[in-house]
Write a structure and sequence with these properties.
Layout (H helix, E strand, L loop, with lengths): L8 H4 L6 E6 L5 H11 L4 E6 L4 E6 L19 H5 L14 E5 L2 H11 L10
Antiparallel strand pairs: 1-3, 2-3, 2-4
Length: 126
């Protein structure tokens, strides 16, 4: 049976064109938590957990080929990752948020760790 799903890119405004996300290892130790805090100390950098419980660092930076009207200016020759994104239901930000947890600051992440009862605070030298 053929997949007839079509992502509504015209309606969405190309939300997936506004960031790059790279999968990272799930943090397990104080050093890992500290690295995530370092990511979050930078502007336009976020960390999220997706619906499959995979962790990602996200860089909020628009694609240089997205026009001011939110259209792809290289649509016919766009990269394969763009062609494949959103081709199956549940794989498109227009329909469903990719996030089950989203951290945009150290404070957000630290509050999450505290809620989970995680001992995250590293000991620092003065």
């Amino acid at each position: 049976m053929a997949n007839n799903y079509k992502a509504p890119c015209d309606e969405c405004g190309g939300k997936c064109c506004g960031y790059v996300a790279i999968e990272i290892d799930k943090p397990k130790a104080k050093k890992d938590y500290d690295i995530i805090r370092w990511y979050l100390a930078h502007q336009n950098v976020n960390v999220f957990i997706d619906h499959d419980k995979n962790w990602h660092v996200e860089f909020r930076t628009p694609c240089e080929f997205q026009s001011s009207k939110k259209k792809c200016t290289i649509y016919a020759k766009r990269p394969s990752i763009c062609r494949e994104h959103g081709t199956s239901e549940g794989d498109c930000e227009f329909f469903d948020s990719p996030y089950i947890e989203y951290f945009s600051s150290c404070k957000d992440f630290e509050a999450y760790l505290d809620r989970k009862g995680v001992d995250w605070k590293a000991k620092y030298r003065n």
